[in-house]
Amino acid sequence: MENVIIIGTGCAGWTAAIYTARANLNPLVISGSLPGGQLSTTTEVENFPGFPEGVMGPELMGKMQQQAEKFGTRVEYSQINSLIKNTDGTFTLKSDSQEYQAKTVIIATGASPRHLGLPNEKELIGKGLTSCATCDGAFYRDVPVAVIGGGDSAAEEATFLTRFASKVYLVHRRDELRASKIMADRVLANPKVEPVWDSTVTEYLTNEKGEMRAAKIKNLKTGEESELELECVFVAIGHVPNTQFLEGTGIDLDENGYIIQQGSGAGTNIEGLFAAGDVADHVYRQAITAAGNGCQAALEAERYLADHE
Ligand code: NAP
Q1: CATH label of the domain that carries residue 257
Q2: pTM value?
Q3: Cβ atoms 273, 105 nearer than 8 A
Q4: What's the pLDDT band for 260 if we cut at 50, 70, 90?
Q5: Packing angle between helix 11-22 and helix 287-307, nearest 10 degrees?
Q6: Whether residue 282 has its Cβ less than 6 Å from ligand 1
């Protein structure tokens, strides 16, 4: 019987591991399908405190893992497919090949940015295709970029990108934004933003180095096709929280599938089950907020175990 199982190895998961390991709880971390989480797919991280020169995303995640393992965290590279709470208050988790028992569980499985499903997306991530303007915007100074989407994220990202880019195309599949009025007005009033209405990207075009050089656009009303020269596409068509495996647990999710936190930070509606990071946060979605929330989950799990000893 484990004291605590942490599912997920992004910033929230590793921070929860560091704290629970230092509290002598001997945590077991299950990596999930993308070890290191979203930061493992980014390049330089310039906004994580403590790294004035910036740090590469995979390096930062490697250091977090090292720090967690230094205090005795154990890691298994598998994926949890189901989780149930037993009548005695403990939890049973199942992967493809193994079953685990734990007194507490911290879910830190993150969220995956939604993509369009075009063929070369995977290869382009980090080479001109991203879902995080805060992370990558500053790399695209004085060059044209595009944002895809029409919600608050797209409006916010496009507005933010005007600080760096020479021009920001805002490609939306309809002719009005879904974003709140204030954010929509702000983005559309910005002279650097050029909306491309009723349109979708049908192909990402690359240069000889495999980097983004243009996007092929189709107007959904007229069928007309065109090309936009650009160096980066920021996809802001929503995120999908990684909570599919929680079906049947009875955990409270909001209408978009995010875990609803309760109590003082990282609790859920199920006692002994905690959630941290992007799996429960559709607002901030930052490495540092996920790490802070992972710390909260660890402290709450520790208190829960102390109260139930
Ligand atoms: P969202 O509100 O779900 O908007 C997603 C956008 O992407 C929509 O405009 C949608 O088009 C478009 N879209 C979805 N699938 C698409 C596809 N396959 N192809 C092309 N376009 C597609 O997501 P979000 O903007 O990430 O916001 C999520 C939540 O966070 C919202 O509640 C939002 O208010 C909140 N948020 C708040 C702030 C803030 O207040 N500062 C900032 C960011 C996010 P349609 O409009 O045609 O459906």
Answers
A1: 3.50.50.60
A2: 0.76
A3: yes
A4: very high
A5: 40
A6: yes
